[in-house]
Specification:
Elements lengths: L8 H21 L3 H14 L4 H13 L3 H12 L6 H18 L2 H18 L3 H13 L3 H14 L3 H17 L3 H14 L6 H20 L1
Helix pairs in contact: 1-2, 1-3, 2-3, 3-4, 4-5, 5-6, 5-7, 6-7, 7-8, 7-9, 8-9, 9-10, 9-11, 10-11
Amino acid sequence: LCQVFFLRQKNIDENLAARFLLEGLELHWAGRPSESLAWVENGLKLYPQNIHLLNLYGVLLIELTEYEKAREGFSKLLERADNPPMMQALFQNNLAYLNALIGRADLLAEADELSQKTLATIGWHPSIKGTRGTVLLALGKPDEAIPLLLAAMQEQVEITNKAQNACWISMAEARRGNLTESKKFLDEAGKLLPSCFLLERALNELHIATLKQTALKTD
């Protein structure tokens, strides 16, 4: 109790903001991004500069497919001078992932640079491996992407991220023409997280690959 009198305001704010962060994380891990976002937005009304709330806010916007809004947020976070090195690397990683999701040529060049940089610094983290695999797939390199995505999926403990990895593997296998493997990982993603925002995208990739193979057999 004595320590309370000597806490700085910054420490007090961080401790109070943690309540919103923890509630948001619990809902995020449960695959309920809209409810999680509500907690985070309430927290940001009180603590608009809290780095952890801002990071989760961007992650949730990704899962709600508000890519441009999320990209704007992570770009601003990267410009902050007070970022701890680990958080700075994670912001770079998240921006690279967003760029791969959006898929524009100019953004893919930045995604390639950022994902290589983070892989070189904290490449042991499964999220970093997953992002690098996603970027490689977006660059048209499924053979290089799959080993990283498989490693990320195996090492991930968060169901939301594991399901996304499974979707990307499904898409990569579809592009390689391995329809059975593609469907296997798509089904796995659906079991892990039925609400995963990438399921429809992966299903479309499998559908296109199936049509291509059918057309080749017909010819």
